[in-house]
Fold this protein.
Amino acid sequence: MRQYQYRLLLTLAAAAIAWPAAAETFVPGTGVWLEKCSDDFEDPDWSYTLNLPKSSYEQDERQRSPGGFSNNKLWHEGGKRGTPDVVKRVDTPPGGLLGSTGALMMQTRLSGVPGKLSNEQMQDDLLMKFDRRLGGSIPVSWQPSCTVRVYLPPFDQWENRSGASFGMRADCRGQKPDGDVEPYWPGMFILFRSETSRNVEADYAQITVRANNRGQDARSFEIKESGWITMGMSFTPDGMVHYYAHEGTEDLTAEDHLMSAYAYSWRCQTFNNFFFNVANWDNGRSWSTPWVIDDPKIFVQPPAGQTVENLYRKRGSRQNVASGGSSRSNKTSGWGIFSRRR
């Protein structure tokens, strides 16, 4: 796999923009693990409540309260798009983390406007809203990071469609070159290349990174076999985003660094939420690929003189709002998945 990473670095170097010296990157998973802001799905009673019809603000500017939520109150339906049609705890697929007995499966079929079929690629979101546990977002001065294990099923179980299938995203706020501060969503995607498509000899998957300094997606390594991969992102105080991934479930290392960028030429200021996306062809018949994740975790490195306790804010304080409050009323969380928008 290292050869694919080396090829990616060459591609990025050819397209790079000159930037001032940046802070040194660090491996996602470094520092203090925020256990209350993470999930391992080991509780056999873990469950998710779907509150249909789902939200579809991106298509028709309608949000349909109340949104879906997990019984541990960490997972929520996004306000711009709805929750996947299936969200449930499953037995950990073969080859998972040592000792893991439970994981989370997401799959969708009706991913567009409820009651209508678009016959286009659509997608649903599932938000791990750690801001509700903290009472606010995490400033990049705390050097936050996130990691997750993702299971790629055998290719004959994938939706037979070349294109984006799964996304791992960070809900952030960033400063634009003109000084304005707005939400944006750096992340990584898993694309499927079907052997039934032109010029594709055999099924494979591919990771792409969003985004480089120009706002373009950067293609990373190809995955030729099913199984687990580990993905992660880290955020440095200079506003850069750093992307890591490898095959297998081992912890990430410095060798797994794919790229670093001021995504869209924005400088990240806060990390607000961690969320996931599944996409399919919205024709009423085609199910998305069944995606399974395990151990999504959040980490921080407290600044000098600070402790993790300083991140947990009192409910009702002015800092208690991140990304617009409730998941259904939040019109920004999860925007831009798989589209050319940020």
Q: What stands out?
A: The CA atoms of residues 46 and 66 lie 20 Å apart. DSSP finds three helices and 19 strands in the chain. The mean pLDDT is 87. Residues 2-320 form a domain with the Jelly Rolls fold (CATH 2.60.120.260).
